[in-house]
Amino acid sequence: MNNENKIYLFDTTLRDGQQTTGVSFSVSDKMTIAKGLDDLGVDYIEGGWPGANPVDNDFFSRDLSFTTSKFTAFGMTRRPGRSADNDPGLNALVNSNANTICLVGKSSSYQVKNALGISEDENLSMLTDSFKYLNNKNKEAIYDAEHFFDGFKNNKEYAVKCLKVALNSGVRWIVLCDTNGGTLPNEISDIINEVKKTIPSEKLGIHAHNDTENGVANALTAINVGVRHVQGTINGLGERCGNTNLVSLIPSLVLKTNFYTNINKENLKSLTKISNTLSGIINEPKAKNSPYVGENAFSHKGGLHASAVAKDPSTYEHIDPELVGNSRNVIISDQAGKANLISQLNKLSIKIDNEQINQILELIKKKEAEGFSYDTALASFELLVRRSIGQINDYFNLNKFRVTDERRWNAKGKLVIDSEATVHLEVKNEEKMTVGIGNGPVNAIDSALRQALINFYPTLNDLKLTDYKVMILSSDKGTGAITRVHIESTDDNKKHWTTVGVSSNIIDASYNAIFDSITYKLFNDLNK
Ligand SMILES: [Zn+2]
């Protein structure tokens, strides 16, 4: 492969993606996303801003040994009026466990004057000092040239001067940022062609925002005129209208151009899964019409299209959906779904015959129509399979539960909201009735269940519910919403598992997810 055609992918989901309204990642979310990105094979994973907040500090203190990706810290150039080695922000970056550091710095004279209120020369010194400092500390340096395209339109000489100064201070990549996202593809190519007269294009990168829905188009345009580094996020996450969507850009590069990335065709098949995992983490359904990975990306609704696709899929599909781990949505018991199921069964070392596989496929389809989703709830998926082939018997049966919520003022005049749950169970031929108190109804049910079960199953002692997510699914039938609950659990073996429950009632959906969580724990502990 020609080295000149290699495109370096820089993922900024954990930093720029986190700027999305309503999104905040926990450390364990960040670990899950980073692991997926490393498996996929992006060149750089920007982990966040060490020194800026507790979650990022915690994340940067973890043992993050990636196989393919370079772990990258983000920050900004030294503050005005300070030396680089005296700048606490820069030192937090230099002392982090990331060997690559991406610094955002101004490149627009307008922003230098109005946002920073400093002289143009001081900004140039800030760039020089900061990047030289990183170089002295043996860090690979990346310059995110903030507001570059707007700055170029406003004062071309100064914008290019900033790039030049950074280049001379030893940066590996100069990333041209369309920070406000208002630049159109033709402007991107015109401006980059001008920049190339001063900066070698193999040093250039692009960071585009999606405010004119050209985030991906602008990245592709920049690549076509010589840029070799692209920043973006999974599912196009990011503030306002988001960033370049890597989930759309990557398959276009890999499958449709002569450029190549670290991501080979085998890894490309995990794209749909990564996209779904992120949607699960931020608890927001992905748009069904998402290119490549959306539920409808390869759906064919009836009539002519469907019958043509049945004869030859290329009649109405631009690529084979399996290439990105997606599947076609028209033919019953389709091959992709079956292949996915078989590979998941292999992972679990479950061996079943063809007829059972078809039955399970039908069962999954039925459950998904009811609102279940197993993309992230792998423990519930495993239980579904094992139950349907008779490998799991219920460890207990719930006869009934009753929950009451109370909002009151206590004797000290303090507002108290608590819940009480009563459960009636049958465990090992005994009837049990217990009452649990909690700060909410789910907590109270969980507490009552544990009291009823702990003497029969002491291994439940270390079970912890660590995360709880609720999604309201609109009902096509207009008979009221369906609720889907995901629960993440862990135990002292540091095992994590996720289960799902669905019901028209949120408490019942939660109970179903807890029931699966307990069953999964017992199955694993009692079958060793
Ligand atoms: Zn950005």
Describe the overall structure.
The chain has 528 residues and is an alpha/beta fold. The model is unreliable at 331-336 (pLDDT under 50). The chain has an 8-stranded parallel beta barrel, surrounded by 8 helices. Strands 9-10-11 form a 3-stranded antiparallel beta sheet. The chain has a 3-stranded antiparallel beta sheet with strand order 12-13-14. The protein has 18 helices and 14 strands. The protein is globular. The chain binds zinc ion. Residues 16, 207, 209, 243 line the site of zinc ion.
- What about the largest sheet? 8 strands, parallel, barrel
Q: Which overall shape is indicated by the principal axes computed on the Cα atoms? A: globular
Q: How far is the N terminus from the C terminus?
A: 49 Å
Proportion of β residues? 15-25%
Tally the helices: 18
Please estimate the helix content. 25-40%
Ligands bound to this protein structure? zinc ion
Radius of gyration: 27 Å
How many E-type strands? 14
- For the biggest β-sheet, the strand order reads 1-2-3-4-5-6-7-8
Mean pLDDT: 91
Low-pLDDT regions? 331-336
- Coarse structural class: alpha/beta
